[in-house]
Amino acid sequence: MKSNYGHVKNTHCPTCKVKLNAATGVLDSNWVARPKDMSVCINCGEILTFTDDLDLRLADLDDMLAVSNDFKQLLETAQQFIRSKRPAHESSST
Ligand SMILES: [Zn+2]
């Protein structure tokens, strides 16, 4: 099957618990997940970071400081796009 998806091990989003087993390489279609790589949950738009075991955890400040502004912008754009397609029943007051 041809696709631009890099397969990662079965894991789930720590925020919305959706099952995730693939991630899209936003900058490189040959991308494969590596520890410290960042991703966006396709379901809730949460910004996530791959752990050493290629599980996913919430991105923290260190992760955000480690990436370029361009990449951060890309993550935020993806996050806004995903969240704009969801019904607004989440509390997002901040
Ligand atoms: Zn999620």
Report what the structure shows.
The protein has 94 residues and is an alpha+beta fold. The chain has one domain (5-84). It has helices at residues 61-66, 69-84; strands at residues 5-12, 19-24, 38-40, 47-50, 56-58. The strands form 2 sheets. The chain has a 3-stranded antiparallel beta sheet with strand order 3-4-5, covered by helices on one side. It has a two-stranded antiparallel ribbon with strand order 1-2. β1 (5-12) and β2 form a beta hairpin. The longest helix is centred in the C-terminal third of the chain and has 16 residues, at 69-84. It is globular, with a radius of gyration of 13 Å. Residues 1-5 have low confidence and may be disordered. Bound molecules: zinc ion. The site of zinc ion has 8 residues, from loops.
- Shape label: globular
Q: Catalogue the ligands.
A: zinc ion
Radius of gyration: 13 Å
Percent strand: 25-35%
The amount of helix comes to 10-25%
**What is the average of the pLDDT values?**
81
Kindly list the characteristics that best describe this protein:
94 residues; disordered N terminus; alpha+beta; globular; three-stranded antiparallel sheet; binds zinc ion
